[in-house]
Amino acid sequence: CPDREDHARWAERWFKLDRDARTLRRRIEQRTNTIARPFDRVCEVLDTLEYLDGDTVTSRGRALMRIYNEMDLVTAESLRVGLWDDLDASQLACVLSALVFETRRADDAAAPRVPGGRVRDVLGAMTSLWADLDALEKEHRLEQLREPDLGFCWAAYRWAEGDDLDDLLEETVLAAGDFVRWMKQLLDLAGQVADAAGSGPLRE
Prior knowledge:
By secondary structure, the protein is mainly alpha-helical.
């Protein structure tokens, strides 16, 4: 071929550009998949738990749509199995606090104080439920659920029972601002639970 050198140069240029294009395509796919892959895994978990049926949201899924806190799956599953059905308002405040509160490492010295009886049983069942959901998420290579934290249970229970705020703050060594913040989150979750529960004693 009389133009061999010219063709060789163009061929070399084509191979370089093709290699660069493949590298760019790979980068785009990796960046796109950083959102798509976890989303697909979340959908698989929701499908396993019957909150989704393929691309269709089930009646169970419609209840989950009303819950938008970090522990939404534990909340929805606790509602579904009726864990909270027999609790009074103070007991419900106590167990819901475990789904919003997060202990600071510095405050982690003593074991959390919780009311006895039915509340203790329900908290144990919620922790067991969380463990099952956590194992399911790990099977799908997700790690989104934190363990329920019992560090605010006693304060939420005593406040709902009508205890004096000063006494509570002294007993729990919580700052007033922290107490208000956690209580606001607890009230917000209680509203979500009421919406998701529908009509009935729990909502009341």
